Amino acid sequence: MQVYKFGGASIATPERMQALLPIIAYGGKPLVVVVSAYGKTTNALEAVVKEALEGRREAALEKLAALETAHNDYAKALLSPAGYDAMKQRLNEYYTEMHWAIDDAGIQHHDYVYDQIVCIGEILSTSIFSAYLNEQGYTNRWIDARDLIRTDDTYRDPLVDLDFSRNQIQKHVLPALKETGIVITQGFIGSTADNNSTTLGREGSDYTAALLAAMLPAQSVSIWKDVEGLLNADPKLFPNTVRIEEITYHEVIEMAYYGAQVIHPKTIKPLQNANIPLYVKCFLDTKLKGTVIQNTTDAFVYPPLIVLKKDQILLQVTSRDFSFITEENLRNLYDIFHAQHVKINLIQNAAISLVVCVDNREDKIRLLVEALEKDYKVLKNDDVQLLTIRHYTPSILEELTKGRVLLLEQKTRNTVQVVVK
Ligand code: ASP
Ligand code: MG
User: Fold this and answer.
1) CATH number of 2-294
2) How far is the CA of 301 from the centre of ligand 2 (A)?
3) For a surface tag, which of 4, 126, 190, 295 has the fewest beta carbons within 10 Å of its beta carbon?
């Protein structure tokens, strides 16, 4: 049994979706297909949410109407007339759900509203994909991932209830696979015990694929992307990137954690724990070898693995009364960060101060700084970047930081991290 994950780019247009048929055939059966929203739908839904939350209901509905038309057109391009008529009715029900959520925007918590609206992107794309595959002779079962992935109610960043989800997955997916051999479900979404929708964090479909694979269990997961495999850096940011043929879970989890956009950071743990290899393959050319991520005993010589995390803030937190930043104060500080759900990307402490690099999430940072300022003085450097290089050499470090202001540098044997302006 295999799990395939298709991201937004792989189904960005009806033509792209058509081009996946041979890949589905190549996957054989049983096959679990995890799909995200098509193209930039999630971004567009985020824009709808923003309008709604800022009280511009009409603008929200207008933006939503454009998305609805686009989805209808997409379905029409792929389905038979009868198939399209049925699909249109089904899609309409999902659109209505979003309209209700927009009406709730003033009443409910921001993150809750976000999840109720944004989750529908994957529901729409998978509904169309499943119906299209059925018409093309790839009989499959569509399963709502919100019946599989149970989470707590930390909207936008929930914890998955692994035991409950495993039970659900085995209960629903295994019999469906017996019946049709192919299951289509959504990445990125889950639901709470109260049946509210949750989303697992941007690009979270990878994580869903890993959870499904670990819990079924499957032999492997393949993530189909528009690149030839895992590269040592983002080609949009760095020249001369190279493809990595094989890499350990450990290397990849470090890269993802520090902001490499290649794979959602939570993806690796379930796969490593169950020892399931993860393939990164190119949907544009299935003959390309791609990358395999797995446990390995071979000692590879890796090229420098480069990750640039943009839109960071550097905070310097200093005790007002000159008390040392040692265990007692550190614990207090960590508690404050934890309470505000701010993840620390880099940390360094001195006698009476602590410097941390965090994501620039305006809403969270404002509350964090307010909480910190009760006992500490806080200085802020806006708009900095965190550069991480694993397997660095002095020359690559010099090349990548030339002409930039270095605000902080940390080196270990394998890794260098710098905060630059
Ligand atoms: N559609 C979601 C996003 O764009 C999840 C995903 O693509 O994995 O973030
Ligand atoms: Mg996506």
Assistant:
1) 3.40.1160.10
2) 31
3) 295
How much is the mean pLDDT over the chain?
Answer: 96
Which pair of tokens denotes residue 381? 């450097």
How many angstroms separate the alpha carbon of residue 228 from the centre of ligand 1? 20
Tokens standing for 165?
A: 């989800």
Distance of CA 219 to the CA centre of its chain: 22
**Structural domain boundaries of the chain?**
2-294, 305-420
Within 263-396, strands assigned E span 278-282, 291-293, 305-319, 344-349, 353-359, 376-390
Question: What pLDDT is recorded for position 297?
Answer: 67
Looking at the whole model, is its pTM more than 0.85? yes
37 C-alpha to center of ligand 2: Å? 6
Tell which CATH architecture fits domain 305-420. 2-Layer Sandwich (3.30)
Got the DSSP string for 317-349? Answer: EEETT----SHHHHHHHHHHHHHTT--EEEEEE
Are 317 and 323 in contact by the 8 Å Cβ rule? The answer is: no
CA 244/CA 182 separation, integer angstroms: 30
| Spans in the chain with pLDDT lower than 50 | none
pLDDT of residue 176: 98
Nearest ligand, CA 202: 1
Question: Does 202 sit in the ligand 1 pocket, CB within 6 Å?
Answer: yes
The pLDDT, as a whole number, for residue 363 is 85
